[in-house]
Design goal:
Elements (H helix, E strand, L loop, with lengths): L3 E4 L6 H13 L7 E3 L4 E8 L2 E9 L12 E3 L10 H6 L1 E6 L1 E5 L7 E6 L5 E10 L2 E10 L10 E3 L1 E2 L4 H6 L1 H9 L5 E5 L13
Parallel strand pairs: 4-10, 5-10
Antiparallel strand pairs: 1-2, 1-7, 3-4, 3-6, 6-9, 7-8, 8-13, 9-10, 9-12, 10-11
Length: 202
């Protein structure tokens, strides 16, 4: 499950700085920073004709009959589901983030921020649809690894920086990335420190 993540206003990663610069040039004021909720719009990277593009992407597919937004798809079954199959084959997206949030299921509902140990930027793997001329994405998930299985049994699929282009432009490479094990993650209580170190995330 991945229902919220964090995208900082001033990323340290040079790749993400470039994305932000291009977004400010081409889509000023059309995306949100900070804690990202379903329905929010953020910078997304997509592949078209072998090239990478940056676009505003809205978190979630419209729900059935006006129901709740669909925000996640299981990576291991998405290609067999009519709602997601074509998007996985033809319209994949990467969502840069500082980290993502999950809540414990031990009755305390502790909110945790999950990040990478070696880098502040994580690259969440998603798929998208063009709806009314706008990009709408869901985040692909896989079974959780040992770094978060005690908090939740699912986690987003995370690509390395080197895997971003193959994931977006090569379906066979994307399938392989979706089948690979995720990196181990670092966790901290979200109330203790935000990704930018300025305090609480809420």
């Amino acid at each position: 499950m991945c229902g919220r993540f964090h995208f900082g206003a001033e990323p340290s990663d040079e790749r993400v700085k470039k994305i932000v610069s291009l977004m400010e040039r081409d889509y000023p004021g059309e995306y949100k920073t900070g804690e990202i909720f379903p329905g929010d719009t953020v910078p997304a990277v997509i592949g078209e004709g072998g090239r990478l593009r940056h676009v505003p992407g809205t978190f979630g597919f419209p729900g059935f009959n006006g129901g709740r937004l669909l925000i996640n798809a299981r990576a291991e079954t998405a290609e067999q589901k009519p709602t997601f199959a074509q998007a996985l084959r033809e319209r994949r997206a990467i969502l840069p983030a500082d980290g993502f949030y999950e809540w414990s299921h031990d009755g305390k509902k502790t909110k945790y921020l999950f990040t990478l140990n070696e880098s502040r930027t994580i690259y969440l793997c998603g798929i998208y649809k063009n709806i009314d001329g706008r990009c709408h994405f869901v985040i692909l998930t896989r079974p959780a690894n040992e770094s978060m299985i005690d908090v939740h049994d699912r986690m987003p699929v995370i690509a390395s920086a080197e895997q971003v282009r193959p994931y977006l432009t090569d379906l066979n490479a994307a399938r392989q990335i979706l089948a690979e094990a995720n990196p181990m993650l670092r966790r901290q209580e979200a109330s203790a420190a935000a990704p930018d170190g300025t305090g609480g995330a809420e």
